[in-house]
Sequence to fold (221 residues):
Amino acid sequence: MHLLVIEDDAGIAATIRSALEQAGFLVELESNGENGWFRGDTEAFDAIILDLGLPSLDGLTILKRWRKAGRKMPVLVLTARGNWDERVEGIDAGADDYMAKPFRVEELVARTRALLRRAAGHPSPVIEIGEISLDTRQMRVAKAGIPVALSPQEFRLVSYLMHQQGRVVGQLELTEHLYLQDFELDSNAIEVLVRRVRQKLGTDAIATRRGFGYSMGGTAE
Ligand code: CA
Fold:
């Protein structure tokens, strides 16, 4: 899961980034409103954490622009303490959730996970496909109840595919959701990653649709 955090307070941004990374997410940071708006408008993020008070372009304007342009990714807004009108405005502008500063970063992580699950249509924190289960709170994957140790990148692949409920996902989309923007990627990186996960979870855990991509829980060909 690939997240964008737009926050101009360097200390808060660093805290959020480190907590989300520890929770297994891939995190991009922007401190400037204009840049943050542009990246949210042009890149595929699974969710965005958006501070409302930002230099060059404020968070509310950013959110309104995204929604007007039809961008549907879940957005959690960060508001100033006690500023209830800002929260109302944020929700009216299309925010999916909000947190008022100061907040516990653990709660932000939990709310982000819940947003991602809801966006994927999973009300429960544990997603199951056949014998394989993904616990989004513990970041654990198990096969037939037995925990399987995955590297962070392997976990991100399994988590992304399992959130898609069997939808076939192409290489380019996987690349966008599993690697940071500037990462130098080998052309066969996704293939290699899929192979490693299959070695751990079983060959049929991930289905290949030749020419289209990969799926978990869908019908294979
Ligand atoms: Ca701010």
